[in-house]
Design goal:
This protein has 17 helices and 22 strands. With 501 residues, it is α/β, with parallel strands linked by helices. The chain has 3 domains: 231 residues, P-loop containing nucleotide triphosphate hydrolases (Rossmann fold, 3-Layer(aba) Sandwich); 163 residues, Rossmann fold; 77 residues, no CATH class. The strands form 5 sheets. Strands 6-7-8-3-9-10 form a 6-stranded mixed beta sheet, sandwiched between helices. Strand 21 and strand 22 form a beta hairpin. Helix 4 crosses helix 5 and helix 8 packs across helix 17. About 2% of the residues have low confidence. It comes from Paenibacillus germinis. Keywords: ATP-binding, Nucleotide-binding, Repeat, Transport. One of its GO terms (molecular function) is ATP binding.
Length: 501
Amino acid sequence: MNQIVKQFGSVVANDHVDFRAKAGEIHALLGENGAGKSTMMCMLSGVYRPTSGEILIHGEKVRIRSPKDAMNLGVGMVFQNFRLVQTLTAAENIVLGESSSFWRGPRWLAKKSEEIEAISKHFRLPFPVDRPIWQLSVGEQQRVEIVKTLYRGADLIILDEPTSVLTPGEVDQLFETLNRMKKEGKTVIMTTHKLKEVMFASDRISVMRKGEMIATMAKSETSERDLAQLMVGKMSLENRAVVREKPQGKPMLEVGGLDVYADHGRKVLDGLHFQVSEGEIVGVAGVSGNGQKELAEVLTGLRAWKQGDVRFDGKALRNSSVRAAIELGIAHVPENRMKSGLAGSLGAVDNLLFKTYRSPERSRFGLLRTGSNRSWSQKLVELFDVRTSGIDAPVQYMSGGNQQKLLFAREIDQGPKLMVAVHPTQGLDVGATQGVHQLLEELRSKGSSVLLISEDLDEVLQLADRILVMYDGRIVGNISREEANREYIGMLMAGSEEDAG
C-alpha cells in the first residue's frame, strides 16, 4: 500500500501511509484506538476506498472497490464485530452469497458442510457447522469467520483486534492456527494494541500513530518498551497542567472486589478495587474494550454486578437503578452523547428536564411548570455558552461541542457529588475540548469527585490527580500525577507489566 490517504470530510484518517506485508508472515499492525490501522485494513478489504494512493498485490496494481473485489484477489477480513447472520447455521453463513448456491442439488448443503468441516479440522478451528450462530460461543463465532475467509480462497487474512473477545485458552488456540496458516504460505495481518501478543505471535511489526505510519521492524529488532514509546509517542510538557496538591477530601466512591459480566457472558471486570475522593479527578486510562464501558454502567445504574462492594458517600450500594443513581448525586456524561445522552429531535428545554422533571421546581401535580422551566433552561444555555438558534430547536442540529456543553449543563446543574465522564471530548475541536476540561476542573475545585474515563492519554495526563490503568478488566496500575510516565502507562495499557524504569 503506497502513500494511502483516506479522508472522511475534513478528517484525515490516514495520511500518506506506506505499508508492506510479505507472503508467509504474521504482520502485526499496532496502534492506539484512532491511530488509523483499522481504516487502512478496511481499504485493503474493500470496505472503504482510498482518497488517494495505490494498492499492489503480488506486485500488480489493483483496484479494490468492494469486499467482493478483495475476495477475488485473495484478501479476506475478520472484523472485530462479526458479520454473521445469527439465525443461520455456521455452514449457511459461510456459503451465503456463493454463486453455486443458485444451482443446488439435494445434497448441496451437506457437501458444502463436509468441505467446511475439512477446512476447520485442517486449521484446527473446530465449531459445529450445523448449529445456528446464536448458539455458538464468541470464540466459535470467530472461528466461523476465519474459516469463511479460508473457504473463499483467501491467501491474505486480516484479523481486526482478534483477541479482544477471547479467553486466554482461545487466544493460545488462535495463535496456533495463525502459525499453521503462515507455514502454508498465507499472509496474516493482525491489527492490535496488545504488546505481549505482538511480541509472541508476529514476525514483523508496523506501528501507526494519529493516522501516520511511524515505523516497521522485525520482532527481533524491538522490545515492548520501544513499541510502547512508538505507539503513544512522547508527551509534550507544555500540555501538562501545573502539579496540584494531593486532594485531602474523604473517599466518595469505594469499589472492592467488583466482578461484572458483559451481555455475551464473558467476565469484563475482574476483582476491581479503587476509590475516588472528594475534590479529586481520577483518570481511567486504557484501550477500548477493557471494561471501562461496563464500569461506567455499573456506577450509573445501567448494569448489575455479580459480586463485590460499592460504597458511595459512606453508604453501601446494591444493584441500583438509574433513578437511584441520580438521586444519590451521580452524574453521567456517556461516551455517545446522541445515542445515550440527548434526544436529538427534542429541544434544549426537554433535554435539560430529563433528570429533574419530577422535582417540585420543575413540575407540580404531575404537570410541568412550563414558564419557569423555559426561563431556567434559557439561563443554563447562557451560563454554559450553548450556541443554539433557540431553546426549542432540535439539539441534533447543534455542533458536537454545543451538544456536549448542553449535556454538561444538565448534569452539573444539580451539583453532583460524583461525575462519571466517559470520553467527554470525543469528536470535539480544540476550543470545545478546552471548555469541557474547564468544566471538569471547576467541578473538582468545588469538591465534587470526577471519574474521567478516556482513551486520550494526553487528556488523562493533563487533568487527572491519579491515573488508574485498565487492562483485560483489571486495574494494572494506580499512578499518582507526580509519578505519571507516559511510556510506562502506554506499556500497561498494552498489557505489558515490564518495569519501564
